[in-house]
Design brief:
The complex is a heterodimer. By secondary structure, chain A is α+β, with helices and mostly antiparallel strands. In chain B, about 40% of the residues lie in helices and about 15% in strands. In chain B, α8 packs across α12. The longest helix of chain B has about 40 residues. The chains are: A alpha+beta, B alpha/beta.
């Protein structure tokens, strides 16, 4: 017996947005009868480009139906750019979590959304085989899909990968290839997360950056209260400024100096920055 | 909400008579049957009475051919591992593609240790490929383990014929009869069967007790060592209350055999015909001519088994499915795959299995609710509209 959350059970027993849309703007179809689950997602946009209607039809188990229902609820009201940011983890989280063997249901939702958006933008039917090379032939999973679920779900083992996208769940012939992909993605992720060495700024770069931060972030805030600020000098990490307008002579100018001016410069330029007021 | 229990191939209700028979051995009669003193030693006669009851149900010539175990799976393991290891030279192990894991597990265990393993196919109706079996058993001395009746579809295999083929070539034949015992009449003494497994909880005894029939003269190496119990075939102090319960359950099953094959069969048939009449795109899996009287396995096109099962569960109906999703694996049941069940329905199978405790009301409840569930899920399915 599966330990489904109340939310999964609710979306399974009372699925939202079931059906089809007449003349949809985008349609995405993923899965198949042979694979054991399939999802057809349709959406229609309003005049501002937001999804005003989304409908689904799903062949699959309780969590596949619940994931599809949740997905439609999540995307209604979003722009396509916003909807595109939704990952399978977001769908699972919306449902209060899925059993680990059922993660692939949430991935199917994300893939259908992607296919529907592709269909809207290109007018063509999404064909994932053109997007990558099929690695798992039992379930028709491509290298691109495997890389993506590995990355998005921080997949560590073959078992987790199979749970997430079904790859390797059939005959098992592709398992060595799948392990190679997991290893490669982890290598890339490790390389990407390594912090690049920060080069120290030249004096000129530092002054430009300070001017830029004052113009962009500090002045607009002060001006709201009728004040202003003038950059007088930069001496090493010491920044000398003069308050203008309402700020000059304001009783809390010392606080403004620390909490606004110095804080912004520390955040954007260097932790070592100190700000002094020139009267 | 009333519970409609139609999952009797998974487990059965403990019969009142069985529970009552066990109580003295859970209260006053707790002695060890191996003891020299009267308090313990007197218990032995109850164990032997149960042995006779089990022997009577399956038609064994001698109660001493019955060995008590902890479950059907242990019986299967003892027959296959213990049977293979007791043979003069490592046998060719033959089994079918539709066995329960309790048989395929020990078969693969032997394969990993260098034994040759062959698995015989079934056809679309789930019938064993007897020609292939004949070819394989001829080639060498085999240990052949083929189930009597399939747990998922109820399809019955011709164990008499299979046993003859195996014996002609000098092999040993074991049958996992966990689903068959108590549902169909049998007289194992007249059949070419060397070993037979049965389980208590499939015939209204509690979980935790089983038995194996080992024909006189058949060699088996015990799995549990360290005691003289069960004539050295299975060490460990006897699970007396459960053994007594199993004996009574076998007695009851014998008395109910006729009812099982008349009233229970009629309930099953009414359910099956009702479903086929009310649910379009439904098909029965398994040979309709040669099935257990209590089992039906039905596939529904374009919808998925776990979803059907959970919607039935919501309405108080207990059944089971061979769908992939329900088991947590990605492939549907190995039995339906071996039968090459069509792709449109292989993921949508539901098994209903009856016992003598089921009534017409149970059938009515399913026939009221199931068509609604099927209709609802078809509305959701992208393959229907």
């Amino acid at each position: 017996m599966w330990d489904y959350t109340d939310k999964v059970n609710d979306h399974f027993k009372n699925p939202r947005n079931v059906g089809k849309i007449e003349k949809p703007d985008g349609t995405g179809e993923v899965g198949s009868l042979a694979c054991g689950d399939a999802l057809k997602l349709m959406f229609k946009l309003d005049e501002t480009g937001r999804i005003k209607e989304a409908k689904f039809q799903t062949f699959g188990c309780a969590s596949a139906i619940a994931s599809s229902s949740a997905l439609t609820e999540m995307i209604i009201g979003k722009t396509l750019e916003e909807a595109e940011q939704i990952t399978n983890k977001d769908i699972a989280e919306y449902l209060g979590g899925l059993p680990k063997q059922k993660v692939h249901c949430s991935v199917m939702g994300r893939e259908a959304l992607e296919a529907a958006i592709y269909n809207y933008r290109t007018g063509k039917k999404f064909d994932k085989d053109l997007e990558g090379e099929v690695i798992c032939h039992c379930f028709g999973v491509t290298d691109k899909e495997i890389e993506r679920v590995t990355r998005e779900n921080n997949v560590q083992t073959l078992e987790e990968l199979t749970n997430a996208c079904k790859a390797g769940g059939g005959c098992g012939n592709c398992l060595p290839e799948l392990q190679k992909i997991i290893d490669r993605v982890h290598g890339e992720m490790a390389a990407a997360s390594a912090v690049p060495e920060k080069k120290p700024l030249t004096n000129l770069q530092k002054i430009h950056l300070i001017e830029d931060v004052i113009d962009r972030e500090i002045r607009p805030a002060l001006r709201q209260d009728g004040g202003d600020l003038e950059l007088i000098d930069v001496d090493g990490d010491t920044v000398k400024v003069r308050f203008r307008g309402a700020c000059s002579g304001c009783v809390v100018s010392a606080i403004t100096l620390k909490d606004v001016v110095e804080a912004r410069l520390k955040e954007n330029v260097s932790e070592d920055i100190r700000v002094e007021e020139v009267k | 909400m009333r519970t409609v229990y139609l999952d009797n191939n998974a487990t059965t209700k403990i019969a009142d008579e069985v529970r009552e028979s066990m109580m003295p051995f859970l209260t006053d009669l707790w002695g060890n049957p191996s003891s020299m003193h009267t308090f313990g030693g007197q218990i032995k006669k109850y164990v032997e009475a149960a042995r006779e009851q089990v022997a009577a149900l399956i038609g064994a010539a001698d109660p001493q051919e019955i060995t008590f175990t902890s479950c059907g799976s242990e019986s299967d393991n003892l027959a296959i591992r213990g049977g293979a290891e007791a043979m003069d030279k490592p046998p060719h192990v033959i089994t079918s593609k539709v066995e329960h894991a309790a048989v395929s597990g020990p078969c693969h265990y032997l394969e990993d240790r260098g034994f040759r393993l062959t698995k015989i196919d079934v056809d679309q109706l789930g019938r064993l490929d007897l020609d292939a079996l004949r070819r394989e058993v001829k080639s060498s001395k085999t240990l052949t383990s083929i189930m009597w009746a399939n747990n998922e579809t109820g399809v019955i295999f011709p164990v008499g014929l299979i046993g003859e083929m195996v014996h002609e070539a000098g092999g040993i034949f074991h049958t996992d009869a966990v689903q068959a015992v108590g549902k169909i009449p049998m007289k194992v003494s007249d059949l070419p069967v060397d070993m037979l497994s049965l389980s208590g909880h499939k015939l209204h005894a509690p979980k935790g007790v089983g038995a194996i029939y080992i024909r006189r003269g058949t060699k088996v190496k015990p799995l549990v060592l360290g005691g003289h119990q069960e004539r050295g075939r299975r060490a460990g102090t006897e699970n007396v209350p459960y053994i007594v319960g199993l004996g009574v359950a076998c007695d009851l099953a014998g008395k109910h055999l006729n009812e099982e094959n008349t009233r229970v069969k009629a309930l099953r048939d009414r359910l099956e015909q009702g479903i086929l009449a009310t649910c379009p795109g439904a098909r029965v899996n398994g040979d309709p001519k040669c099935r257990l009287p209590n089992t039906t396995n039905i596939s529904f096109d374009f919808i998925e088994g776990e979803a059907i099962l959970l919607m039935l569960d919501d309405r108080g109906i207990c059944a089971s499915t061979g769908s992939a999703c329900a088991s947590g694996s990605l492939e549907p049941s190995h039995v339906l795959r071996a039968m090459n069940v069509a792709g449109v329905s292989v993921h949508g199978s539901i098994r209903f299995s009856f016992s003598t405790y089921n009534t017409d009301e149970d059938v009515d409840a399913v026939l009221t609710e199931l068509p609604k569930v099927v209709k609802r899920l078809r509305e959701l399915s992208p393959f229907v509209n």
